[in-house]
Amino acid sequence: MSASNCLRCCLLRPSVVGRAGATAATAKASAAATARLRQGMPLAAAAAASFSTTANRGANQKPKPGTKAAERNAPPSIRQGKLFTIKKKKKNDSGARVKSPLPGERKAFRKRILLSNTNALPVPGLTDLGAESMLDPSNVCKVLSLPDDVVDQLRADEAFKTTQCWSMFRKPSILIRTETVDLITRMHAAAKTNKTLRLVLTGDRVTGKSLMLLQAITQAHLNDWLVVNIPDAQELTTACTEYAPILDTEPIQYMQQNYVLKLIQAIKKSNEKLLLKLTTVFSHAGLPQNIPIKSPLMQLANSAKEAEGAWAVFQAMWQEMTAQGHGRPPMLLSLDGLTHIMRISDYRTPAFNPIHSHDLALVRLFTDHLSGATSLPNGGAVIAATNRNNAPRNPSMELALAQREAEQLGGGKDVPQPQPYLKGYDERVEAVLRNVQVIKLQGLSKLEARALMEYWAASGVLRITVDEKSVTEKWALGGSGVVGEMERASLLTMRF
Amino acid sequence: MPPRLKVWAACRALSIRPRPLSARPPLRCAAVPVRTFADSTNTTNTTPAVPASKLPEGYEDPEPESQAKKNESEHDDNVLQALDKLKMISYGLNPFDPAVEGHKYGLPQLPLPSPMHMKHRYDDVVVQLTKLIMRDGKLSKAQRDMAMILNYLRTSPPPKINPSKPLMPGSPPAAHLPLDPITYITIAIDSVAPLVRVRALAGAAGGGKALDIPVPLAARQRRRMAFQWILDVVEKKPSKGSGRGMFPTRVAEEIVAVVEGRSGVWDKRFLLHKQATSARANLNYKAPPRRH
Amino acid sequence: MTSAANSLRLCLRTSNQITSRLRTVQRRQVPLARRALSTSQARWVAKEKGKDDEDSEPPELKYYSSFNDPGEALRNRLKDETLSEDDRATITGMLEEWQLLPQQKKGDAERLKRDINNEMSDLRRIINPKRDAFWNDSDEKDTDLITDEFGEDDFEEDDMLSMSHGKLEEHREAREYARITVWEMPLLSQFAKSFQPPAKEDCLRFRYTTYMGELHPADRKVVVEFCPKDVPGLSEAQQLKLKKLAGPRYNPEKDIVKMSCERFEHQAQNKRYLGDTVSKMIETAKDPTDMFEDIPLDTRHHTFKVKLKYPKEWYINTKRREELEALRKQSLLLDEQRRATGGLIDGVSIIKKNLLAAVEPEPVMELRGGPRSGKMRR
Are residues A468 and A397 in the same domain? Predict the structure, then answer.
């Protein structure tokens, strides 16, 4: 700042100039001020006192956008003291601009399922599953592959999970276990006699419960059953999808239209052939579209375009699918993550009371069928798989399943009894599970383990010789053949 | 001085025995321990009857028939075994194979195969890279990450190798890499690893300037440097998804990029090599004698 | 030497004459109480003239006269008019006895007296306090002190070391207890009672605590334990009710009720209270009006310990060994069969075979955006 400028500045402005303090008056600003004077414009900033002990703040003065930078750079008044300011973090200091993923993209990436690995070697002598192959006890300890159309259907059903090792093999294939044959035989027996198999798959962690459920769904698809699969019950009860009360229900029930819409689309996709073939037999009122009688069920399913009205469409579809005496095929209703629907949900009533999971309409539909309160008129199966890893504490379910298991083994005395002083038992849960069959999955037998490991080795992902020694080693590492642990010990290691 | 003959010393070692040792008849009472109690009254019966089985060998038994037969059969067995062994020698086999003889489960295979050795269970390169991934001493997490990296390499399609960024000589064709992920990652790291580093010797250029001197690196150092470069790139990359599998995915993607010649790590390597080449004249630099 | 003099002094304490003389000696040498800290020299209080003469004279001058023999002393005693009749008779008797004594014995008494006088001469010596001595004078001996510190710690090579004394003391102690063991302990067997195992009716087990005569806040505590099954005359239902009444005092693993009391000051009181409580509980358990059937037995207070045991089936015995042998043989056979038929799957060889089958043409070096050919040549 030159002396002449400073002088002029003082002459012009007898006191400190407004906002940024007089010490910061630049030559440019003073020049502007003189120009204004010459033009006869009022000097708004000059209204300050000639001498002041308070710091200057220009609350009512709007700074000019051009001078903003100059003000920021100006040192503050001495009397103002030092202000603590948090510096803004510089974004992306590496300089390279990266595109951040769109909303939902990261989750989609996490949830994506790869079913084929082109590097893996094709296994010689691997045959596709047939409609009867899972019924045949001679197929136990064999690995069979899933037919391609069934793979698409299963994908629509979301029966594959990200935690399973599908992405390592050329073709999705499954091992037929003794439990598989047991389960499939029960399903067939039920379908033949138009009865409903009500069954719960339980077992320790990574013993293959979800995979057993997948096998059941596969069998249903192979035999042209209608399949309604709820892939992860957690989504229904953890309050992550919208809900609304259903009118005229006592006690009041809640529908989850967004989820139901998704479910309808899944049903549509996985049961496409059947839905095209089957025709409606009832007239339905109150749907988004008018569906005439004898139109294909697919049309009914297609009428659910938005979440609004999806519940009504689902009800109509359910009515049609379970219509008796119209040549409807048997049906499989399956659910993974039973623990999540056997508790009080995270939803709340308008009065902020917690809602029991069984008051959610879709869950209620499932539990009614599982408990046997309503049955599938054309026969079929209601199968639920428990989950262990991400499971809430559920003493009544544990107890009920343990009781059913003990009863099946025929132990009259060894049936576990509820602990009289334990809190958290739920009568509704006990009522649902009072009369179900239970299959408890345990480790594989050595022969099954050997078959599985031979499949892995033949696919080129297990670089060892599969003999009794290595099989026993992995079998023991996997905690007596717990299949997930075996996988972890042989496929997810740094050693190949 | 020549050693003296010590005849007497030799004689001292001689022993003259008039009769063979075995010809001496065994003493009967010597083999029978006799104990009398202080309060025992029947002191007269000091020599109890000796049971036949306890008699010493060679003692003339009044009824030696069965014993002799047994001895004979044993003898026959031994003879047969010896004959077997002789036969083995004639076939050119070692009859006293230490792997079989005297060991219940045989001898272990030596040197121990690497999976049997606790410290060499995994490949050396994999171990080194795992330790470089490790943060806060969480080795098992790093190991899981490494396993995921290897699995990613197995499932990704075979890399398309860029001829301008060639891999190490002698590396297998690209199609063979995915099914051998350890080779895959080793080749990627070794190919991109720098051969030298440039050491700036402070004040050596005169006038307070540093003098750049290229220094060769050991294999382990080279791998470490290359993988640190890769990790630097990985840290700056955004992940596509979420969850614990994302870091290994990014590392594996970068390794694939290295093999395919797309990675920026190559540029780092070229730059370093160029710098080292230009500084190669400084290799003649000798440190001046230290002044005290 | 001094100890002998002391003992003598003690023996002769009853003699009025001597004590009084001693007393005068003491009186003379004890100075007045001084100030704790003073710069001026201590002086005797200046006495008034008249009083001085009276005080300086010994008040009982007559006792200063000494007697040659006891007869004289007794005679002298008889001269006293204040004596009572009894005393006078006794003294007269004693005098007569003295006179009857033969001359030699009388001489003995004389000699004894002389000896005593010789011995006592030290004590009787009048000690004149030094006028200008001060107590912090190193040469001065402080006679007030009970122990003579001067030279006390000096070891004059005429005694054992203190460690040896300590050792000796240990030996003495050990011997004392050994004596007790040998001589006194066997006498305790007189008090021995034969053990009577508790009868079936004695279902209560009491536990007391003693601290071997020491006072302790816990020595009054009494604990009772009993098994509800052992309580006579209780039906199953009543036993269950008793367990429910006991609440957290019931241990379901051992089936034992354990109660304690330290509320009262004495052990007996506490025991009485426990007995009363138990009998009350049993009485209540027998009361059929409310059998607590609607209340389940509460065992939340107890954590059941699971003791894992090595499974019996895993023990290695001949049978198990045979089983294992058979299993191994079977698995070896399986492997061999597979190997023979070519069904044994080796991951590495399979990969090699497959990769060799699909041989790819080697990539040819081609120029793609690299440096120009001129540079390359260089």
Answer: no
Q: E strands, A206-255, where? A: 226-230, 244-246, 253-255
Predicted confidence band of residue B221 (pLDDT cuts 50, 70, 90): very high
| Tokens at A366, concatenated | 């499932």
The residue among A75, A110, A135 that closes a domain is A75
Domain that holds residue B86: 81-110
C369 and B CB contact within 8 Å: yes
| Residues B92 and B168 grouped into a single domain | no
Topology classification of domain C198-324: Double Stranded RNA Binding Domain (3.30.160)
CA distance A259 to A362: 9
Give a yes or no: residue B76 inside a domain.
no
Judgement on whether residues B89 and B164 belong to the same structural domain of the protein: no
Helical ranges in A358-466 per DSSP H: 361-371, 395-409, 427-432, 446-458
Q: Which of residues 340-359 of C touch B (CB under 8 A)?
A: 351, 355, 358-359
Contact between B163 and C351 using a beta-carbon 8 Å cutoff: no
Between A107-111, C11-15, C42-46, C361-365, the lowest mean confidence (pLDDT) is in C11-15
Residues B235 and B136 in one domain: yes
Question: Structural domain tally of chain A?
Answer: 3
CB contact under 8 A, B241 and A110: yes
Please tell me which of the candidates A121, A420, A463 has its beta carbon nearest to residue C348: A463
CATH assignment of the domain containing B183: 1.10.455.10
In Å, how far is A111's CA from the nearest CA of chain B? 9
Same-domain status, A28 and A174: no
Note whether A336 and A437 are same-domain residues.
yes
Residue A278 belongs to some domain of the structure = yes
Q: Residues A421-446: pLDDT tens digits? A: 998 899 999 999 999 999 999 999 99
CB contact under 8 A, B163 and C363: yes
- Percent of chain C past pLDDT 90, that is, above it, reads 46
Smallest CA–CA distance, residue A357 to chain C, in Å, is: 30
All chains having 3 or more CB pairs closer than 8 angstroms to chain A: B, C
Q: Same structural domain for residues B191 and B230?
A: yes
Best probe of the C interface among B164, B182, B266, by most C CBs < 10 A, is: B164
CB-CB under 8 Å, C331 with A472: yes
Distance of CA C291 to the CA centre of its chain: 52
Per DSSP, the three-state class of A366 is helix
Is residue B67 included in any domain, yes or no?
no
Give the residue from chain B lying closest to C351, CA to CA. Answer: B179
Same domain assignment for residues A405 and A484: no
Any domain includes A198: yes
pTM for this prediction: 0.68
Which chains contact B through at least 3 pairs of Cβ atoms less than 8 Å apart?
A: A, C
Which one of B116, B155, B177 would you mutate to disrupt binding with A, by most A Cβ within 10 Å of its Cβ?
A: B155
User: Is B157 close to A119, i.e. CB distance below 8 A?
Assistant: yes
Flag whether the ipTM exceeds 0.90.
Answer: no
Strands A244-246 and A465-466: unpaired
What is the rounded distance in angstroms from the CA atom of residue B184 to the CA atom of residue B251?
Answer: 13
Q: How many domains does chain B have?
A: 2
Q: How far is A445 from chain B (nearest CA, A)?
A: 25
Cα–Cα separations (whole angstroms), residue A92 to A98, A99, A106, B237, B254: 8, 11, 20, 11, 20
Mark yes or no for CB contact B123/A494 under 8 Å.
Answer: yes
Angstrom distance (rounded) from CA A151 to CA A157? 10
User: Does residue B239 form part of some domain?
Assistant: yes
Asked, for residue B291, whether it belongs to a domain, the answer is no
Contact B240 A106 (CB under 8 A): yes
Tell whether B266 and B138 lie within a shared domain: yes
| Structure tokens, C205 | 């087990």
Q: Which residues pair with A440 in a beta bridge?
A: A202
Per the structure, the complete domain to which residue A370 belongs is given by 124-441
Dist CA C224 CA B8 (whole Å): 93
Q: Is the peptide bond before B111 cis (omega within 30 degrees of 0)?
A: yes
Chain C CA closest to residue B158: C360
